[in-house]
Amino acid sequence: MIPLVAVAHGSRDPRSAASIHSLLDVVRSLRPEMDVRGCFLDLCAPRLSDVLRGPSVVVPLLLGKAYHARVDVPAAVAESRVPAVVTDVLGPDPRLESAALRRLSEAGVSFGDRSLGVVLAGAGSSHAPANEAVSRVARRWARESGWAGVEAAFASIASPSVPEAIDRLRMKGATKIAVASWFLAPGLLPDKVASLAGDAVVARPLGDDVEVAQLVLDRYDEALARQTIAA
């Protein structure tokens, strides 16, 4: 069986790598016979070049198709000179939304609370379509949740910021605020979001959610169905 090589961005925060490894443990539990290898683009080990040792399917553990997905991952695979296929990123996919909503529920948030405003906080990118993908999720939640409002916000580069999104929700009548995480793992940017959220309830990152793990496997299966990888 061709290995699944899951590559995350990487962080100096040890919680980030631990969260990625926990997610991959769930992936392995769903398909015990598979060779699942975890690695990182930067800041921690192992790197992608350390684990690409032959024909592989590389699954970027990225929620959107921003710079890392469009440039860094393909470049690292090309540099390795092994016969590997790079799958689509994880998003957009309804299972990411389900995981984010489960994290909100774990934090005590429920649907239909008209006094509640929800910020959907993501990393932010200079690539506008990546930001728009997060905004689309927020608009869908706003239509379907029964909350006072839902606003997308970004930790860096893009607007609005978390405080700006909270102000917008207050103007819509929200008296309570919760922040949903559009991050896969803890780290610098999720911590920045939490620090800017004031007294809001802040949900934890998606992490080792079983639907996220299934999504990783589906990206692998889809890539194999599209392309034969030379042995």
From TrEMBL:
Transmembrane segments: none annotated. Keywords: Lyase, Metal-binding. The keyword RNA-binding does not apply. Gene3D superfamilies: 3.40.50.1400. This is Cobalamin biosynthesis protein. SUPFAM superfamilies: Chelatase. InterPro entries: CbiX-like, Sirohydro_Cobaltochel/CbiX. CDD domains: CbiX_SirB_C, CbiX_SirB_N. The lineage of its organism: Bacteria, Bacillati, Actinomycetota, Actinomycetes, Pseudonocardiales. The keyword Lyase applies. It comes from the Bacteria.
